[in-house]
Amino acid sequence: MLELTMAAVSAADAGATAGMLMADSPSDPGAVLRVGRDKSVCRLSTPDDWLFVSRVHLEFLCGPDGSWQVTWLRGSQPDPSSEVRLTVGDHAQPLGYGGTVPLPRGGSGELIIVDRTAPRSVNVGFYHEA
Taking the CA of residue 64 as centre, how many other CA atoms within 13 Å lie in the half-sphere pointing to its CB? Predict the structure, then answer.
């Protein structure tokens, strides 16, 4: 099972947890959870006018062995207007544009999509149940 929580945070409401969204999926091979602006394909969607987030920005995919990975999908622009950071425990690393990283089985962490032009972010927490 992969559980996701998402909060869209602007400078005005930093630290608030109101409006938190949640989604989950069993760890079945081929299962997908997406985060982005397109509500028709994303289980967790951001405000439509937050253009620093792509229509489909992050894709969580379950592999054949029940492990999960996350990919920052490349959008329509050659250079993104955001940055994505992955934090697991005390370890933080950037996730490259178009990059994929495995999620720790039985672990938790957070992906933060940061707007490069304004004090806004999308915080996506995850828990991968073993």
Answer: 0
